[in-house]
Predict the 3D structure of the following.
Amino acid sequence: MPLYTSAALYGASVFDNCRAWHADAASLVYGLAEHIERFKESAEEALLTLPSDAEITAGIWAVLRRCRGRTFVRVRMLAYGTGHDIGSRQSSLSVFALPVAGYAPAAPHLMTTKTVRRAEGDLPRALKSPSTYLRVRRDVVAAREAGYDDLVVLNEHQRVSEATRSNIVMVKDGTLCTPPLNEGALPGITKRILRRLAVEDGIPWEERPIHRKELDQAEALLLTSSSLGVVVADSLDGRRFGPSPLAAQIQRRYTRLPEEHPDHECLTSLADEPTSSPEEAL
C-alpha cells in the first residue's frame, strides 16, 4: 500500500493527528501507539485497509526528520479510498506535518452552543472523518461571527459533551472533571495522557456528567487535543475565569513533558532509524 500518493479520493477517508516535539535529529511523539490504534479503529469503521503499524510509524518519522529546530508540530495521517468501486477496501495513506503555532488562541474565549449534539450520533464517536468536520466548521464559524473562538457543545440533556475540536476538562474544587464518552465526547488521546499525569501528581480526576449550570461555578476550563495541546480558556459566555494554579500546573506538566521527562511512558522516541526505512516509504 503506497504512502504519499496523490490518487483520487473515493468513497471514504479517515484521519488522526498526533503531537510531536522535535529537536535536532530526535522527535518525541505523544501517545503514538494510542493514536495509531485509534486511526486503525476509524479505518475499520470506514472499511479501509491501512498499512502496518511499522509502515505508519516510518512515514511519521520520515516527515518529522524534515522538521527543523526545536518546536511542536502536529502530524496528520490521512487515509482515503482509492479502489475502483465504493465497496473496495483499498486505500492510500498521506502523512504530513502542520505547525501548532497559530492553530488557535492561547487563551480562547468560549461560548455555549445554542444547538445540541446528540450523545449517540449516527456514526461512532471514535470515527474521525473529514466529512464529519463540516459540522465542526459550521460551529466554529458561528462562534467566530459571534465574537468567540470556540464552542462548548451540549448534548440533548443539556450536559457538556466537548468543544468543537477538543475535549473539555473542568477545574472545580481542586479536581479535574471531564465528561465520559457516553456524553458524546471523542475518546481523546491528549485527555488520556493528561489523566495519567494528574494521577502521577496526586491530582483528583473524575469522569462524570457535567451539566451546563455547573460550568458557572468552574474555576477554569481546559481544552485538550493533539493540535491544541492543553490550553486554559479565558472566558465562557462572557464570564472571565480568574487565575487557576491547578490549571496552570497541569498545563505546564503536559507541555514540558518532553524536556523534563523525555523517557516518560506517554512519549515515543523516534530518534533511531525505524525498522522500515522512511526513504522506502517515500
